[in-house]
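Researcher: Structure prediction, please.
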Amino acid sequence: MPSLKLLDNCDFTTVEKIKKETVFFTNLLSGVKYMISGSSILSIMYMNKPEYNDFDLYFYNKKHLKSACNILKKSKHFKLLYKSSYASTYFCKKNEKQIQLVYQTKTTAWHLANSHDFVNCAVVYTPHTGSLYVSQKAKRAWQTKKLVINKSPLMNPNYPNLRFFNLYSIFILRIRKYKARYNLQLDSSSKALLKKIHQDYQNRLKNLPIPIKSVAYLKCPYSGFEYAFKDVLNDFQLQDIL
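Model: Predicted structure follows.
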């Protein structure tokens, strides 16, 4: 199993920045073991002025997840915003930030880092040890300013159509966000993969037994909110993001 690189003392400043940004919940959850990964950590690491609304918390087992939920329920500074099949989201009244407690457990930092759909997201911070991890592939992607696709259910030809359309629209929005926010460009292998995914999308549309309505709503697997995939895909041109 490939290992993650533990960032050394030269990144002490980065770790301190993460600690400062997360202190509004890390002290409260000091007795719980969990990991933080996702857009918020990337924003803190790679933007001069971080832009994020929430932190994604991943747990080693259900016991730690349950403990975190119980602590936040009792806290006067947090309130439960909503629950989805993916996570419970809590709102901090002090700074109006959100923390998402993800239900799916991750046994190791490596497991978590390599579960993301983009290689660039393979970054994990563990508050209970104060350690920051990044995969070698992620480090290389950021150094070369490339956006690299890791894996996605979109690569599965048997993925159900409506879920495919919904996830594809989210995927496109994320690519646009990362390119604009971090000035990244898709690498050649990701461009080729995206072309295959888009061709699959077009084939699925042609082969649908019943045409899709002009706007179709599904629940987003991440937030639980209803999401109109046709709002994104209706006028989408692949060349726009290549």
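Model: The chain has two domains: 5-141, 147-240.
Researcher: Thanks, that helps.
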